[in-house]
Amino acid sequence: MNEIQLKYGCNPNQKPSRIFMEDGNHLPVEVLNGNPGYINFLDAFNGWQLVKELKAATGLPAATSFKHVSPAGAAVGLPLDEILAKIYWVEDLGELSPLACAYARARGADRMSSFGDFIALSDICDVDTARLIKREVSDGVIAPGYTNEALEILKAKKNGSYNVIQIDESYIPEALERKQVYGITFEQGRNELEIGDALLTNIPTKNKALSDAAKTDMKIALITLKYTQSNSVCYVKNGQAIGIGAGQQSRVHCTRLAGQKADNWYLRQAPKVLNLEFIQTLGRADRDNTIDIYIGEEFDDVLRDGEWQKRFKVKPEIFSREEKRAWLDGNKEVTLGSDAFFPFSDNIERAYKSGVTYIAQPGGSVRDDLVIECCDQYNMVMAFTGIRLFHH
What we know:
The protein is α/β, with parallel strands linked by helices. The protein folds into 3 domains: 3-172, Cytidine Deaminase, domain 2 (3-Layer(aba) Sandwich); 195-267 and 332-384, AICAR transformylase, duplication domain (Cytidine Deaminase, domain 2, 3-Layer(aba) Sandwich); 271-318, no CATH class. The chain contains 14 helices and 15 strands. The strands form 4 sheets. The chain has a 6-stranded mixed β-sheet. Strands 12-11-13-14-15 form a 5-stranded mixed β-sheet, sandwiched between helices. β14 (356-361), α14 and β15 form a beta-alpha-beta unit. The model has no long low-confidence stretch (mean pLDDT 96).
């Protein structure tokens, strides 16, 4: 098949719409179920590149949860501990396969943003992963293959309309890529930069103790940023993104946005949150929304009389600002990646509040000395990659 006709483009008024191969070759994808749209395919192709590179860099199965052409989460398939299984709502599924663990982590990092996601998987989708996907609100999935049982599970989702795409993992695109804006064609070489240990050798900070685990988290951060709309920063811990800030005009706003997401991820693990007693009829999405409000500054929206009864069996105590800060101080060994240099040390100050110990960024700012000095103040390890990772 050389082309796939789509219902419309980004919006219903943008017709006609299709994806096709200009060189006349067959498309490297096959739609196994559903009717994916324009944005679905954008998410699918960006997500597939991300997980393919994550697996190549780490040797582990990888998954990502995409929304509006940026990842809401990305992770590799490390096992889940009891607390993570609980905050990701998968504790009832038993022991999960590595691929399912990767998606649980990718989906669970920022469940608010992942609602209605498009999923990309690095490996053949197995039954565990399909069972997990089936119970989440999602638009579709792309993978290099599906077991028969997994495919039947996914085909039954959304009354049979769930989008399932299979991609040829051997497909290699042309070295030049093109797109049109306002009738004008843009052309550039594909970003084929391989993100590996070689990019992490220039460490200008006094602390140069970069563990293998920290290197892995740096690579996860940088590969995630490679497919995130710029400006962007990414916080990573233990093999998964825990906060992604995408598409902000100011870098410090990215750092703050992603830092708040990382903080929320960690706050969800606090005993006060884990022990919330929800009413039986409250679904996972509503529980996610409730938790997000409860740990935020507008907690009264779910705690005032007439509202808490709709969500909880017992009215929770307020999670005070002081209690939250004390809990967040326990988050350590976090990695921060940036797609371009930090122009001011305020980014480092904000990162420190979210437990950042390791930083990977291109370097090259006229204020690099101030950024390094700030890192040294907090005994951070920072690598200058020398490579910018803008993505638009």
